[in-house]
Write a structure and sequence with these properties.
This protein is mostly helical. The N and C termini lie far apart (45 Å). Helix 2 crosses helix 4. The protein folds into 2 domains: 137 residues, no CATH class; 32 residues, no CATH class. The chain has a two-stranded antiparallel sheet.
Length: 191
């Protein structure tokens, strides 16, 4: 080898705390967080990745904004459910292959077990009025959570103005203008 300087290649699970990243979080606290999110989090992928950002970047500081954005970008590139892929990517970035595996199982297993349990309840009691009302109420709450999380995700990741209905003749914008009124625009604050 010539007298050149060796290039440091980042290793998943080994973070550079001098570069502003938080000290590495342990595997089990990370798994516990995703087990809790997988058990109690609801609202679809946009809501769940919003919960991940708030919980891991803003509140705990376990993940830097750059790491979160990278994990979200990787999750969007991979086939499969966005929230699960983002969780797995974060597990990989923080704790390597073992972290990705443990986080993936912790995040997905609770929802799988709940779906099996709810399906059996629905088959048994689905004709009862209170069961139908319960499912309709949960659906309404989920729509609200998705809307809030989508807005926060756009604000965090799109640092420019989004204008609706400004380009005539494009079909969808004409329809949005018809529905929302002339000059319907939303200016998002910079992320």
């Amino acid at each position: 080898m010539s007298g050149g300087k060796a290039v440091d290649t980042p290793v998943p699970g080994e973070r550079d705390t001098a570069a502003g990243a938080a000290p590495g979080v342990g595997l089990w606290p990370l798994a516990a967080y995703f087990l809790k999110l997988g058990t109690l989090g609801f609202g679809g992928p946009v809501a769940l990745v919003g919960f991940m950002r708030r919980g891991l970047v803003e509140r705990r500081g376990w993940v830097s904004e750059d790491e979160y954005t990278l994990a979200l970008a990787l999750a969007q590139l991979m086939p499969g459910p966005l929230a699960a892929q983002c969780a797995i990517a974060l597990g990989y970035l923080l704790r390597g292959i073992v972290g990705a595996t443990v986080v993936g199982l912790a995040f997905v297993l609770p929802s799988f077990l709940m779906v099996v349990g709810l399906a059996s309840l629905y088959v048994t009691y689905g004709g009862l009025w209170w069961m139908r009302a319960l499912f309709y109420g949960v659906g309404a709450a989920v729509v609200g959570i998705i809307a809030i999380s989508a807005y926060k995700l756009v604000v965090a990741t799109v640092p420019h103005v989004v204008v609706l209905g400004e380009t005539p003749g494009t079909g969808i914008n004409d329809e949005l203008t018809r529905l929302l009124g002339d000059g319907a625009a939303t200016q998002l604050p910079p992320g």
